[in-house]
Amino acid sequence: MQHGSVLIPGDGIGPEVTSAACRIIDAALEGGDASIEWIPCHAGVAALEHGHPDLLPRETIDAIQQVGVALKGPCTTPIGGGFSSVNVALRKTLDLYGAVRPVRSIEGVDTRYRDVDLVVVRENTEGLYAGIENEITPGVVTSLKVATEKASYRIAKFAFEYARSRGRKKVTVFHKANIMKKSDGLFIRCAKEVHEADYTDIEYEELIIDAACMRLVQDPTNFDILLCENLYGDVVSDLCAGFVGGLGVTPGANFGEVNAVFEAVHGSAPDIAGKGLANPLAITMSGVMMLNHIANRTGDAAIAAAADRIKVAYNAAVGEGERTGDLGGSLGTEAFADALVRRLG
To answer: What is the dihedral of CA 306, 289, 42, 16, to 10 degrees?
Structure first.
């Protein structure tokens, strides 16, 4: 069975790492009963470079809506000025309200933490991170934090459903409702109501975010599913990535009711773009999440088997010392992809 996936290479190191990930995925599927048809599209700076007048072309959105799935490389967002985040625009346009970032220790990546296995679930459309800002008068700027019952209920239900479907035992909500009593207060009220209505088999916990971050760095193994509003989730997911070796070893996915976009959560690293040094593991891991999503949606066992084979391959490669420079190894982008493809043969 052939399945379509939109491929958004992104910019900077994006084209290099997405090309490597696609090669690995194609190798895992080669000779089997399933395949991926990659549908190239562009977003961000790359869209302008390819002659599109918009950072987020309509044809890219239409293509994702047609097939329901995309694999996306990093897109640059200017700091302190310039255009707005293409990543945020993509999530809002497609209503990709649930961000999922698994964080798991990998054998062979030495960090000060062991046996980390947690998932950050982030509300992806509201809050301060939505970027609703206004200059009231010169020198005075406001940022609007929006929270709605609809979004708070649905991300809470999403988190508990995710926990139940994967055998997870606990959901911890990070908040600052002691200060932001209405917005964060609404968020935790909705989470608590969802838990009490349908998910009492799963442990529920609320933590004020500053104390929660302290407890995280003391012992991340005490946590399972972290449920966060938008801005907190972005910060906390990067913090958690540091427990296991950084953003080069942590995948990401954005889910809506219909569509899903899987992406590397690291930046575009323009300083090393074109040098063949970038680590393609994060986008490959995101590709594995994409394959599992397709398999769950379609029942295609061949796609699920390919996802398992890739996971076994990258665990083995990293565990046996075949790593890129960011993980203390000597391999470049393509050499690391070669190492995984060999293990798939």
So the answer is: -70
